[in-house]
Amino acid sequence: MYPENYRYTKEHEWVLVEGDRGTIGITFHAQKELGDIVYVDLPKVGTVVEQGKALGSVESVKAVSDIYAPVSGEILEVNTALADAPEKLNEDPHGEAWLVKIRLSHPDEVKDLLSAADYQSYVGS
Amino acid sequence: MNPSAALKQTPLNSVHRRMGAKMVDFGGWDMPVQYTSILEEHHAVRTSVGLFDVSHMGEIEIRGPEALSLVEYVSTNAAAKLREGQIQYSALLYDHGAIVDDILVHKVSPLEFFICVNAANQDKDFEHIRSLNRWKAEVELVSNRYAQLALQGPKAINTLQKLTPADLNSLRYYWFVDGEVAGIPARIARTGYTGEDGFELYVPPDRAESLWNALLDAGSEFGIKPCGLGARNTLRLEAKMALYGHEIHASTYPFEAGLGWIVKMEKGDFVGRAALQKALEQGIKRQLVGFEMRGRGIARDGYEVYVDGRPAGWVTSGGPSPTLGKNIGLCYLPTALSTIGRTIHIMIRNQPVEAVTVPTPFYKRAK
């Protein structure tokens, strides 16, 4: 369920780190809890985000949820396809429906994050 | 283990859990918000049929030779005009003219009225009515005696007719009949909170599960879906049906909420009438208005509304409209600004996002 090479937060984001680059998304558990996702609000390219601070939000039919940055850095790319197809977050949250790509400013922050096994046991499924 | 033992439960609680519903705390009740998907459940009701457990709703009975006098005095609509078997949307008001609750008054007989009230308001409503009972009417809170299931959608009638000898074609909107469904004694009311045709069924709590199962079986040929409160909310918003605590509450007059039609000022005295008379003379200061988002973003309850750069009101309900494929909402605006076609801005996370006021209801079913 949860890719081994990703790292996870207790707020249900994931990050895939490759060198000083990271790809960020929300977890399968997050989308399942949210239900049908109908809107995604993401930062502009060039925005600097800080670990643990909101970088955007996703909205289901019922509610708004903040997305917290799992690591600090500068936004390099935004998954613009989600604007017209937010439901992809329900369908493929760990793959096609990534949210942003980031240049990590503090790569050592990654060690604060959960492994796939730890996240899996945290969400208990 | 039940993680929410402190919450109140309907007789169908274990059924919902067994069916994998996502449960939430809804005003102190452990209720299903969705089974599979709010969007799917919403579309099922618009295009075919959906089944809701709304047993959290409260019921109050008013009985005796003076029942009508009490009902007329505590409610805004003309209960005296009801015929046996007829139902009326109405409201209980405070002395100051604002809304205690919105209610459905069923005339069972000249000696008995059956009132369906909001779950979270039932104790308050009961105390309110009882405190105003200067007649010898009997007032009883009977919520424990009823489970309530709502069967809603264009195929609701086909589904229900398979299970009841009652002639549903001749049962008109806002009328009810006491009969049987799947052999279970039921009050069958042609009412609902979705903007579709449908029925609300009041049955003994210990028969709720058999009724639930019988309805799901009967509706399977139409693709019936069990539906949660999430879809109930998107459906009622599209139909612009008020939700207590949002469009209406203890500081809204019915006239502000577009509910002037349930207030019969000419019917004689009733609680809140004098205050409403005064409010009408002074002019109604704000109005509930529908809007559609033009910019990207979803308006949610409580968001501020700006007109011409100034704060002017707030959103009472907002969200996506699955039927229209737009983001819609209701908001209060000063009466002078409440015209249709006006550009307004909703403050979404500190950013003004453009919207336009539109006619309501957002959705109306084809007759």
Regarding quaternary structure, what we see is heterodimer
**CATH homologous superfamily identity of chain A:** RNA polymerase II/Efflux pump adaptor protein, barrel-sandwich hybrid domain
CATH class of chain A: Mainly Beta
What fraction of the residues of chain A are assigned to beta strands by DSSP?
Answer: 35-45%
Please, what is the average pLDDT of chain B? Answer: 96
Helix-residue proportion of chain B: 10-25%
The CATH superfamily title of the largest domain in chain B = Probable tRNA modification gtpase trme, domain 1
Biggest interface between protein chains, with counts per chain?
Answer: A-B, 13 and 18 residues
Number of strands of chain A: 9
Count the E strands of chain B: 19
- Tally of alpha and pi helices of chain A: 4
CATH class of the largest domain in chain B: Alpha Beta
**How do the helices and strands follow one another from N- to C-terminus of chain B?**
HEEHEEHEEEHEEHEEEHEHHEEEEEE
Helical residue percent of chain A? 10-25%
Structural class of chain B, please?
alpha+beta
Question: Could you tell me the radius of gyration of chain A in angstroms?
Answer: 13 Å
Give a written overview of the molecule.
The complex is a heterodimer of chains A (125) and B (367). Chain A is an alpha+beta fold and 125 residues long. Helices cover 18% and strands 35% of the residues of chain A. Chain A has a single domain, classed as OB fold (Dihydrolipoamide Acetyltransferase, E2P) (Beta Barrel). Chain A is globular and about 35 Å long. Chain B is an alpha+beta fold and 367 residues long. In chain B, helix 2 (38-47) crosses helix 7. The relative contact order of chain B is 0.15. The mean pLDDT of chain B is 96.
